[in-house]
Design a protein that fits this description.
- The complex is a heterodimer of chains A (276) and B (376).
- Chain A is an alpha/beta fold and 276 residues long.
- Helix content of chain A is 20%, strand content 33%.
- Chain A has helices at residues 31-36, 78-84, 104-107, 122-133, 156-164, 210-222, 264-267, and strands spanning 7-18, 21-28, 44-49, 53-58, 69-74, 91-98, 111-117, 141-149, 168-176, 184-185, 202-207, 230-233, 249-250, 253-254, 261-263.
- In chain A, 47% of the residues are buried.
- Chain B has helices at residues 21-30, 90-93, 130-143, 151-158, 176-179, 207-214, 223-238, 250-254, 261-268, 274-278, 324-343, 353-356, 364-372, and strands at 14-17, 34-41, 44-49, 60-65, 68-73, 97-105, 111-115, 123-128, 160-165, 191-196, 199-204, 219-220, 285-291, 297-304, 314-315, 318-319.
- In chain B, a hairpin with a 2-residue loop joins strand 10 and strand 11 (199-204).
- The two termini of chain B are 44 Å apart.
- Classes of the chains: A alpha/beta (276), B alpha+beta (376).
- The interface between A and B is large, with 45 and 56 residues.
- One iron/sulfur cluster is lined by residues 278-281, 335, 348-354, 364 of chain B.
């Protein structure tokens, strides 16, 4: 077994989510590789663009179908820019899945509070989809999304749809709202009151800019949510994804191995300290 | 070799006369190994092909100090009267630059991924130091015994025969006695030698070494030779003046993240990454892509990287460690703290190379002491 060697995968579908965000649905071409592939929401794959390199991309599709793997890609550089241009039928490399996902087993029967900031935060989309497909196994689902500017909000129809589901609440805040912005204007933590969180029943799953997560954790623990019920998905430079290259280290942890999803107590000592 | 209960019996050390060292090299060659050993080249002792024992740096010693390395002459016939050169075993196993695989585009647009595993020939290394064996054990843990084994490292590692030489002449920068990793090799070798004026006390550390040594038909070392070797090792330990405790400094370091010393050392540090290159335990590497000119094939490579490099902590538009202060802090808090969580021990084996090869002579023992204060 060579852990660095990708498998070939084919683009089966491409969805343009916004100007800078594309979802690629990928299928491993090798039947044997496909049949042994299993993942959990929150885990990621290394996706390879020929001649350009590999990037870590969170899996957004649901584990009930492990043959078509959804990857929502934000264009941030050369590799992601190239991947976003691919069309159905094009081939890429894929290896994974890597890391630890969300604590969905532990969260069964609980309220799930998803807090996310920034653009198209893929790791939590996996959680939302997972809960929605198994709606009766979970309590209340609250989705809180913060964006800088109201124009940054993608997937507006999705939020409308999610909102229409039973026992599901959607709260959105933009630092700067535009005309006709129906949601809150201000910090994302300002809508926490409206979520009417029942601390002992709630699992929190967060991803986004660390400043936002930091403020979120502070606010939630202040409301009595236990620290070990708060999970965060972290982002660092990842090149090998198998704990060898050293780039993703966060204090004593390798984000690619012990993360990307961490229970807050694991991160607490260094969280918010610049330089880690 | 086994007693009736299956426990290996302590084997009596043998004596290898200096004049017969060549026989050991010949036996290794007969057993299929290519031999490399310390050679004097461009004013430094580095590993090179070793055909003749006479190519060893006899009468040479090294003089090391913070930011300084030079070789000098010494009295006597000894070939290992020096401590260590800039290389450990690291570059032999974890290549500074290598191809991992390449991707080829088929005519139908498909991609094929072809591993570029190294051809590793059996290699015998003569003159391995105790600190380097300790570092090797750490890299074994990192590259082989985690959740994913690295087949590139594994290939080279499986073909290695290690002849350690216990240190009799530690450099001023060495502090392995305090980290518990030297100056005497205690495990991980095939053969360990103690150099005396007229030859070597040879301790066997593996079955294959046993067979090899048996073929040399050596006499057992005398009790005097054995005790002289022991005395020499003790002296080598006592001669060391630098110290770094091997226990976990994590708490002390992390309680001191805002210590002004970090900014002070950052004033001196050039962020050049020499320390991480020469450090036998540093393992960071970047992966890169080298497409062929016609674009049909692309090589996926890796090369050593350093937490002192800007790209080490970079992700889309953000550098988590933008300055030398945070990079030096990352290096030290990882080496002396995080390693305990990751590998169950400190990442420093006391070889002193980062002190010697630092262009401005920053001393890890001094910095750790200054930052952790009395807590060290
Ligand atoms: S930190 Fe310095 S002294 Fe310690 S093992 Fe690395 S190079 Fe040697
Ligand atoms: S650190 Fe110890 S084992 Fe390594 S060269 Fe110095 S004295 Fe020898
Ligand atoms: S990505 Fe290489 S160690 Fe985590």
């Amino acid at each position: 077994m060579n852990p660095y060697l990708p498998y070939e995968a084919e683009v089966v579908e491409r969805v343009q989510e916004s100007k800078s965000i594309v979802t690629l649905h990928l299928r491993l071409t090798d039947a044997a590789a496909r049949s042994t592939y299993h993942f959990a929401p929150g885990q990621f794959n290394m996706v390879y663009l020929h001649g350009a390199g590999e990037v870590p991309i969170s899996i957004v599709s649901d584990p009930h179908d492990e043959t078509i793997l959804g990857h929502t890609i934000r264009i941030v550089g050369r590799v992601t820019g190239g991947l976003a241009k691919l069309q159905p039928g094009d081939r890429v490399g894929l290896r994974g899945p890597y890391g630890r996902g969300w604590p969905l087993q532990e969260a069964l029967g609980h309220d799930v509070l998803v807090v996310t900031g920034g653009l198209g935060c893929a790791p939590v989309v996996a959680v939302i989809n997972y809960v929605i497909l198994r709606r009766t196994f979970f309590g209340k689902l609250t989705i809180i999304q913060g964006v800088k500017h109201s124009d940054d909000l993608i997937w507006r129809e999705r939020y409308t749809y999610w909102r229409s589901l039973p026992n599901t609440q959607v709260l959105i805040a933009a630092d700067h709202g535009g005309p006709l912005w129906p949601w809150h204007v201000g910090l994302v933590t300002e809508v926490f009151d409206d979520a009417r969180i029942v601390p002992e029943r709630t699992f929190v799953m967060m991803c986004g800019p660390e400043g936002m997560m930091h403020a979120g954790v502070k606010n939630l623990t202040g409301r009595g949510v236990a620290e070990d019920h708060i999970y965060l998905s972290m982002e660092r430079n990842m090149q090998c994804a198998v704990g060898h290259c050293g780039h993703c280290q966060y204090g004593p942890d390798f984000v690619c191995r012990q993360g990307p999803v961490f229970a807050y107590p694991k991160l607490k000592a260094l969280f918010g300290v610049k330089g880690f | 070799m086994n007693d009736p209960e299956g426990k290996p019996l302590e084997e009596a050390p043998l004596f290898l006369p200096a004049s017969r060292l060549q026989h050991l090299l010949d036996a290794l060659v007969r057993a299929g190994f290519r031999c490399i050993g310390p050679r004097l080249r461009d004013g430094a002792i580095v590993y090179g092909v070793l055909d003749r024992a006479t190519e060893l740096p006899a009468g040479v010693t090294d003089i090391q100090a913070p930011g300084s390395y030079r070789v000098g002459r010494t009295e006597g016939p000894r070939m290992f009267a020096w401590a260590n050169g800039p290389q450990a075993l690291k570059p032999l196993l974890f290549s500074p630059h290598e191809d991992l695989w390449h991707a080829e585009r088929r005519l139908d647009g498909g991609l094929e991924f072809i591993p570029d595993l190294p051809n590793a020939d059996p290699l015998a290394v003569i003159g391995v130091r105790a600190c380097d064996l300790a570092a090797l054990a750490l890299h074994d843990q990192h590259f082989l015994h985690g959740a994913y084994a690295d087949p590139y490292y594994a290939r080279r590692r499986s073909e290695l025969f290690l002849v350690a030489v216990n240190c009799s002449h530690p450099a001023a920068t060495c502090f392995c006695a305090s980290t518990g990793d030297g100056p005497c090799a205690t495990c991980g070798f095939d053969i360990a030698l103690d150099e005396l004026d007229d030859g070597f006390v040879a301790t066997c550390g593996s079955e294959r070494a046993h067979a090899l040594l048996a073929g040399l038909d050596l006499a057992p070392a005398t009790p005097e030779q054995v005790s002289e070797a022991r005395r020499q090792s003790e002296q080598a330990a006592q001669a060391q003046t630098r110290h770094l405790p091997s226990r976990n400094l994590r708490e002390a370091l992390f309680a001191n993240l805002e210590n002004p010393r970090w900014a002070e050392v950052a004033e001196r540090c050039l962020s050049c990454g020499n320390c991480t290159s020469v450090c036998p335990t540093c393992f960071c590497h970047r992966e890169q892509e080298q497409p062929s000119l016609d674009g049909s094939s692309s090589a996926h490579t890796r090369e050593w990287n350093s937490c002192f490099a800007r790209d080490h902590s970079y992700i889309h538009g953000l550098t988590f460690r933008p300055d030398t202060r945070t990079r030096y802090r990352q290096w030290l808090t990882h080496k002396l703290g995080g390693w305990h969580d990751q590998f169950g021990r400190s990442g420093c084996v006391g070889c002193g190379r980062c002190i010697t090869w630092c262009p401005v002579g920053i001393d890890i023992t001094e910095e750790a002491m200054a930052i952790c204060g009395s807590r060290t």
